[in-house]
């Protein structure tokens, strides 16, 4: 395992940036071990829900973790709003960095992750190869 510290900038899309960082590293499998920072709104899909919910306003990233492949990422995150309320769920496109996001990635040399539609779940699920 190799690690990669990553800082995202204001305006970056969190999910797309994580996938791009994996591609730029030359690896085909990785994990986000942790992430903190701030967002200017987020798109989170809650357990059992078919569509993401749009969260508006300033948010603090409390936790961020998940798997990364060239096919995309499976990320979960918890955030707090200006009143300290905490929400969490599946990270969708549209989570925009407000001031910074600081992440630690674990890159897995020699591993290859892909995502394939699993008819049992209806989602593209991780395939380890």
TrEMBL record:
Entry-linked InterPro entries: PPC_dom
Matching Pfam families: PCC
Superkingdom assignment: Bacteria
PPC domain span: 1-129
Transmembrane segment boundaries: none
Name this protein carries in UniProt: DUF296 domain-containing protein
């Amino acid at each position: 395992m190799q690690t990669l510290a990553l800082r995202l900038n204001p305006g970056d899309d969190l999910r797309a940036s994580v996938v791009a960082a994996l591609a730029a590293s030359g690896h085909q499998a990785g994990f986000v071990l942790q992430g903190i920072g701030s967002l200017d709104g987020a798109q989170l899909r809650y357990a059992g829900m078919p569509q993401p919910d749009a969260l508006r306003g300033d948010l603090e990233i409390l936790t961020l973790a998940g798997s990364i492949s060239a096919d995309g990422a499976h990320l979960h995150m918890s955030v707090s709003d200006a009143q300290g309320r905490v929400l969490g769920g599946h990270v969708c496109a549209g989570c925009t960095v407000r001031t910074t996001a600081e992440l630690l990635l674990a890159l897995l040399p020699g591993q290859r992750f892909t995502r394939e539609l699993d008819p049992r779940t209806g989602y593209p699920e991780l395939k380890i190869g």
